[in-house]
Structure of Biopolymer transport protein ExbD:
Amino acid sequence: MAGGIRDAQSGDDLAENHEINVTPFIDVMLVLLIIFMVAAPLSTVDVNVDLPASTAKPAERSDEPIYVTLKEDMSLSLGNDTVTREALGVSLDRVSDGNKDARIFLRADKAVDYGKFMEVMNLLRDAGYLKIALVGLESLPVPHGAAETTAPAAEPKP
């Protein structure tokens, strides 16, 4: 409250007001908020720059990626070869030349149970391979109502 009410007894002397007027403080804070809201999107950099080339040696990558596939029948494949769960670690060591930092690309059939999928991930972890990349198909997003309208309706058989 900015002002106080005078008492009839006090005469011409005004009483001291010990309350802080927060209205100007709130006004300043709202103005600063609006300034930052307008300025924040403008602070992003969107300038095309032709960067110079670097002389640093690029990081070495393996020529052939290592794929582990979990099929619908729960069998495992390393590349194109079928392997047992017990021999997975030894086969990975052979293919990766013992490099435990090699990235393993893990792919699974969509009918595979999540628990079975996690068992294979645990097998890879127990074998010492911690860099596991999950592989999936990229697809365009389908509008929510489009999937329902494009699917043919099932007709009941008499």
